[in-house]
Hints:
12 strands, 32% strand
Amino acid sequence: MLTHYRDYESFKQIAVPLLEQRSDLHQLPLGILERGDIPILMAIAREGDRTIVVLQTIEEQAILAGDAFTYDGTRKLSRILNCPGYIGEQAIIEPLLASHSPFHIKMDQGVYALRKVIPPAALDYTFRVIDASFTDDAVRFGWAFIKETGALPATERSRLKNQQTIRKHIEAGTLFGLFDGNQLLAMASSSRPTSSGVTISYVFTPQRWRKQGIASYLVACLADHLLTSYPMVSLYTDWSNLTSNKIYQAIGFELVGRSVQITKRPKYQ
């Protein structure tokens, strides 16, 4: 049922073609594999003609991507893997959330893909790469994003990781902002580039500049910029935030799936 891999290239040769069958839905694992970091765990699970790619890069969770197994098959796979958390398509994760489950939902997201931007109303702001002179502002935006979304626990380790991530984005030229003169109003990054697409993340606008169309205009500008180099742009949203989901759909993003992140309840950890 479960085949473990130790050789990274051998795993990629099996996993990438499977994931590319739905590249719009699988940009997260595809981007991680393209990055070249050696994962903690690489495995392929099979149940009949169904296949799940298992990829773990951090201790807290494993990524599950592919076909939905039966209820019993998914729970058996979880027992074998014995991870403290999982992230994957809703259909794959659902059996792990049955009654009396040790897991609870940490994050429920919509997965969107875009191939052509529907331009929103233009704003009198400037879209450009965020350079090193705005590092402090970007770090503050990034930390506020983490605390607001719960993308990472609000710990000192996460704060330092945010600083490192923001600085890497700035050095790579993959952090973008909307500016009013020299005032940074909002930011977003491009990440996990692959031959099939790239992902927009770290989308954040401070509270005082919200409800002005700034975030959607920034994302539209960034998506339009990225589509000159990639065939598709993907984006994850908070599924419970109906407003942001509608905003992204209005500029051309189409819902391609749901991604659920789960973690074990404290008493089971």
